[in-house]
Amino acid sequence: MIDAILSAVPVYGLWIVAGATFLSCLAVPIPSSLVMLTAGAFVAAGDLAAVPVVALAWVGAVLGDQAGYLLGREGGRAAGRLTRGRKATQLLDRARRFSDRHGGPGIFFSRWLVSPLGPYMNLVSGAAHMSWPRFVLWGAAGEAVWVLGYVGLGYGFSGSIAAVAQVAGNLSGALAAGAVAIGLGLWLRSVLRHEKHGHAHGSRHRGDRLP
């Protein structure tokens, strides 16, 4: 499937790139990052124009985010199908914790720094009724970083696309796991502090009642 998609990039070009970024934001298993890397390589070779590639990839990603947001906001069977399975459920739970911890900036970073959480952040943001203008602002800015980063990497390393894709994918997964671990650590520290404060407060009250 991946080979078929990549072979279609020089033929259908811009529409393949836009479609890939759109679908990836809905948790459809499309190798959108690899498609953008490949498109960047074709830009370097002069077969595609840089501005339309970047523009349509960004528009596709932003529209995909809006579709995910609306699915989360309205609920329904479509959103349920996107989160079916153990892995999807785990990613959705991580996205909720990441969103609770970081809010708007979390939307921004989930577009590119911890991109595996991105589609699920869309659903979480919609379900939580996050302000739509705020969601659009943070999401569009993050998608710009994502698109420019991958198309730029493809342009700069057009002779080593497979190696760059593997490094980028491994780094993104590691960062997502690290972000979740940090979030859980901060949450646990907050809980422990709260319990410690509660115990100290209770001890003072018991001391006041002693004769």
Distance between the termini: 79 Å
User: Helical stretch count?
Assistant: 9
Instruction: Detail the poorly predicted runs.
Output: 171-181
Silhouette: elongated
Give the topology string: H per helix, E per strand.
HHHHHHHHH
Largest sheet: none
Beta-strand percentage range: under 5%
Radius of gyration: 21 Å
- Total count of domains: 1
Question: Which structural class best describes the helix and strand composition?
Answer: mainly alpha
Q: Indicate the percent of residues in helices.
A: over 70%
Average pLDDT: 78
Please give the number of β-strands: 0
Notable features of this structure?
membrane; DedA family protein; VTT_dom; 211 residues
Structural write-up:
- The protein has 211 residues and is an all-alpha fold.
- The chain has one domain.
- Helices cover 84% and strands 0% of the residues.
- The longest helix is centred in the last third of the chain and has 49 residues, at 161-209.
- 40% of the residues are buried.
Which helices and strands, and how do they pair?
Layout: H1 2-12, H2 14-24, H3 32-45, H4 50-74, H5 77-82, H6 86-112, H7 118-127, H8 132-156, H9 161-209
Helix pairs in contact: 1-2, 1-3, 2-3, 2-4, 3-8, 3-9, 4-7, 4-8, 6-7, 6-8, 6-9
